[in-house]
Write a structure and sequence with these properties.
This protein is mostly helical. The chain has nine helices and no strands.
Length: 297
């Protein structure tokens, strides 16, 4: 396990050094590659802390991550004081309760609390104010923020409770991070190498290239990070790569809706929401594959 972290951080140091030296000497502005480097460092540090802190520490760590993502998401989509009660409930009721259920390994309530009970509570809190204009839109924004920021992200530390033989559970989390980031990176490289114009068609082509690359990478990483056979890992890598791509499409649509200028179907890595949303979309699917298909409960 220590050897894996040494390899990861050594690669990051080399890559960071190369890009930093290159862009200092040539005085070029940051591009899509250099914007991703801080995200890789954050994910590597999250993985290391997860390994060092154990189950409880990992759950508390990702609770803090969910808090940061929720704060950023609500700042992006909510602009009305009338939503104050629902936002307070999201931060100080729903968030801690969800992670308490994860900590207790109470799977039934952990998996149903937000999609069922929180979805009833939040519209009620939104409706108790005297402002009823755009009610459905306001309620949906907060519900969506809670699903993405809390429900989806909480599935990452829930992996720590799965029964994995011969391997630390942290390796399954690292596998998720590596595959999502590899898919995004190869999609970007494909577009750059073939000088493709950023259109809807080329977006799907480059996404497919990234997904296929990540699937092949999963095949070779499976003996070191997962309890799967290589072919099983390849299928899992394909699924979570697709989900990661879908997550970034959603992030792009949200920014467009809020009038934030972004380059077509590219992702700015200037905030925790941007580089965790793809992982967040993949995490519930990945968790349920591990728990129900591979029966690691």
């Amino acid at each position: 396990m220590i050897e894996i972290f040494l390899i990861i951080f050594s690669v990051l140091l080399i890559v960071s050094g190369i890009f930093l030296l290159n862009y200092r000497l040539e005085e070029k502005p940051q591009n899509a590659f250099t914007q991703r480097i801080p995200a890789w460092w954050v994910l590597a540090l999250l993985s290391l802390l997860s390994f060092l802190l154990g189950d409880i520490g990992t759950i508390l760590l990702f609770c803090a991550v969910s808090f940061l993502i929720l704060r950023e998401f609500l700042a992006l989509v909510c602009d009305r004081l009338a939503d104050y009660h629902a936002m307070v409930a999201a931060f100080y009721l729903i968030l801690p309760l969800q992670y308490i259920f994860v900590l207790m390994d109470w799977y039934d309530l952990f998996s149903l609390f937000i999609p069922v009970y929180a979805f009833f509570i939040l519209p009620v809190l939104t409706s108790i104010t005297s402002h009823s204009s755009d009610f459905l839109m306001r309620a949906a924004k907060i519900q969506w923020a809670v699903v993405v920021s809390i429900f989806c992200i909480s599935h990452i530390p829930a992996i720590m409770h799965l029964s994995v033989s011969n391997k630390p559970n942290t390796l399954l989390i690292i596998f998720l991070f590596i595959i999502i980031q590899a898919s995004e990176l190869f999609s970007m490289l494909w577009r750059k190498l073939f000088q493709q114009q950023k259109t809807l068609t080329t977006t799907w082509i480059t996404a497919l290239a990234g997904v296929l690359f990540a699937s092949v990478l999963s095949f070779y990483l499976s003996p070191y990070f997962t309890p799967f056979t290589p072919l099983q890992a390849m299928l899992v890598g394909f699924i979570i790569s697709v989900m990661g791509f879908v997550g970034h499409l959603v992030m792009f649509a949200i920014k467009q809706d809020r009038g934030i200028k972004v380059r077509a179907h590219t992702h700015d890595y200037d905030s925790i929401l941007n580089y965790m949303l793809g992982i967040g979309f993949a995490a519930p699917v990945y968790f349920h594959i591990l728990r129900h298909i591979f029966q690691l409960a």
